[in-house]
Amino acid sequence: MSTVIIPAIDIRDGRVVRLQQGDYARQTTYAAEPVAQALAYAQAGAEWLHLVDLDAARLGGFSLAALVAGIKRSSALKLQAGGGVRTHEQLTAMFAAGVDRAVIGTLALTDKPAVRGWLAEFGPERVTLAFDVKRDAEGRWRCASHGWTELSAEGLDDILAEYRDAGLCHVLCTDIARDGLLGGYNLELYAHLRARWPTLQVQASGGVAGLDDIRAVKALGVPGAILGRALLEGRFTLQEAMAC
Hints:
The chain is α/β, with parallel strands linked by helices. The chain is built from 11 helices and 12 strands.
């Protein structure tokens, strides 16, 4: 199985930014204009782009409709986007704007009946569930929510079992201890997910620093790899990532 390389752009106040471990006070702002950055990735060969609406993640709503429209007008990129999806209306607005796959995070923990219903209504190819995880003292992966201040009572595997029965296909999983720190993917986490859930289309995210990190998740057979800060800071090119 090949690994799809997915460049990521986080947007706040119309700017391309990155947060360290999800902390809004630890933000790096980049000079790149969002549409121009997206088009650069498209020209480098990207098929998918991952967009994070940090304003919506904090305040609700969906603020990237104009950006999505601009990217769609100028490229053939498929867009996976998320950030603060809380209602059916927000989800339909994202799809109407041109988002190909919507990312749902906290609500996948707090309102499972609604999310299961959306999987049935829109189909498993239109929805990615995102889980930010942390290992507890017993060695079990648990999901964080509400700005990573709370951990779910259920383990990640229990939650995935519920959604797999509802048709879940795409899962984005981030070890919060690695996010934005360039420490490399948590290979133990993704090896576990590949072994326990081989049919899920797992996307690795958080901490990639170099090409060896990408080679490692490819060796595990992880279907997708999200690349953010390392690309923005020029640690390697998208072409190098896709070819390694």
